[in-house]
Amino acid sequence: MSAGELPQIPFTDLRLEQADLDAVAEVLRSGWLTMGPRTAAFEEAFAAHLGVQHAVALNSCTAALHLAYLAAGVGPGDEVIVPAFTFAATASAVLYCGGTPVFADIVGPEDPGVDPADVAAKVTERTKAVACVHFAGYPAAAGVLADLCADLGLALIEDTAHAPSATLEGRKLGTIGLAGCFSFFSNKILAIGEGGLLATDDDEVAALARSRRSHGMTSGTWDRHSGRTDTYDVVGLGFNYRIDEPRSALALSRLERLEEDIETRRGLVREYRARLGDLDGLIVPYRDQDVADSSCYVMPVMLEDPARRDAFRSHLSEKHGVQTSIFYPAIHEFTAYHGRYPAEGLDRTERAARAEVTLPLYPHMTADEQERVIVACREALVA
Ligand SMILES: Cc1ncc(COP(=O)(O)O)c(C=O)c1O
Predict the structure, then answer these.
(1) Do 176 and 168 form a contact (C-beta atoms < 8 A)?
(2) In this structure, which long-range contacts are made by residues 260-265, counting pairs with CB atoms below 8 Å and at least 24 apart in sequence?
(3) Nearest to 183 by CA among 165, 196, 198, 164
(4) What does the pLDDT look like over 45-54, one tens digit per residue?
(5) How far, in Å, from the CA of 195 to the mean position of ligand 1?
(6) Three-state DSSP class for 122?
(7) In the prediction, which pLDDT does 253 show?
(8) If you measure from the C-alpha of residue 62 to the centroid of ligand 1, how many angstroms do you get, rounded to a whole number?
């Protein structure tokens, strides 16, 4: 069979259950679609799941990052140290506040989390906050960064887009810094289409996020509909960062199976690691013992020779029907960022950005599909 006739294996895939569809249909039938009781129920459940005081549901993780940086006091003239090896939103949300992103390097190909030593070296008197990204679902050095930030009076913001329910020394990621920012975008673990959430133990941060997500208004449409108040004031510059009820209902329904989904992902990642971990020419980031703490969002591998990446990816897709992705091109090398913001000494990021290939991973991946991916990788390395 040629690759054209093989069923394609996507790098990510989403399958909803009947219970999810029922939950959304029930909301649609209720006739109340904007933020209301389903959102409150989801926030309560997510906060309990994390063991955190406040969960503020939003329409994206990008919105959560924006509000988190605002809550940290980031404004014009301030710097925020962010990893260069992440999705653009970690940095663009700093720019929304008028701040300057200062890019930091990763530890290395085995640990693509931000390097605390490079973060420490890049702190200046203008630094206001530090962002870490729990890449692929594995904890960044958030404990070390939290201590550094506490010593210097900086805020630590955790970009937890990849890592719902993942842990660092028993603590859920997204609960270590001032705020944790989650994504429920289509290809994420708790996918609902578009959605996000800001988690925090800080009452003031939560109050700011709740107010700013809905135009800085002192009450919402649901409050007025349910007779709690019939007027409102606008007390700050706000945005429309609201989630809606169908998405909250979907999130609430999917949250019930989150741990089960993640456990299935871990099983698949363990198999990948066992079969790909010792191949010449391939680096599999992180260690076997890290899998239990990770939410296993994606399966990154790094080619030892970045010049072979295109051929490797083409071999997988053209000969085996296996789709891959790249997590991530380096932000400071994008047209909109290049040469405009501090980006010194990012060699490890630049190499990883050229070497990384993201392999297929989703909870309902079959053993046959995974076998096809593994065989394809082994073949591509010697092709
Ligand atoms: C690391 C990281 N941060 C932030 C985001 C932005 O998330 P959203 O699409 O929910 O705004 C993403 C999503 O791709 C991401 O991967």
Answers:
(1) yes
(2) 261/189, 261/363, 262/165, 262/166, 262/189, 262/295, 262/296, 264/363, 265/189, 265/295, 265/296, 265/297, 265/361, 265/362, 265/363
(3) 196
(4) 999 999 999 9
(5) 10
(6) coil
(7) 98
(8) 6
Atom of ligand 1 nearest to the CA of 62: 11
pLDDT at 221: 81
- Does the CB atom of residue 350 touch ligand 1 within 6 A? no
* Token output for 185: 């975008």
Amino acid code (one letter) for 173: L
Q: Whose CA is nearest to atom 7 of ligand 1?
A: 61
Which residues of the chain, if any, have pLDDT below 50? none
Nearest CA to ligand 1 atom 9: 185
129 lines ligand 1 (CB under 6 A): no
Residue type, 361: L
| Element holding 356 (H helix, E strand) | strand 356-359
Q: How far apart are CA 202 and CA 148, in angstroms?
A: 19
Q: What is the pLDDT of residue 2?
A: 62
Return the residue whose CA atom lies nearest to atom 14 of ligand 1.
87
Q: 68 C-alpha vs ligand 1 centroid, how far in Å?
A: 14
Convert 232-265 to b/e letters by CB count within 10 Å (16 or more is b): beeeeebbebbbbbbbbbbbbbbbeebeebbebb
Give the pLDDT score at 148: 98
> For residue 219, what pLDDT is reported?
84
DSSP secondary structure, 82-100, as one string: EESSS-THHHHHHHHTT-E
Rounded CA gap, 374 and 251, in Å?
Answer: 32
Handedness of CA 109, 110, 113, 117 (dihedral sign): negative
β-pair partners for 58: 196
Ligand 1 pocket member 205 (CB < 6 A): no
Copy the structure tokens of residue 116: 């605390």
Q: What is the pLDDT of residue 224?
A: 81
Which among 11, 62, 295 is the best mutation to test ligand 1's pocket, defined by most ligand atoms within 8 Å of the CB?
A: 62
**How many Å apart are CA 261 and CA 49, to the nearest integer?**
15
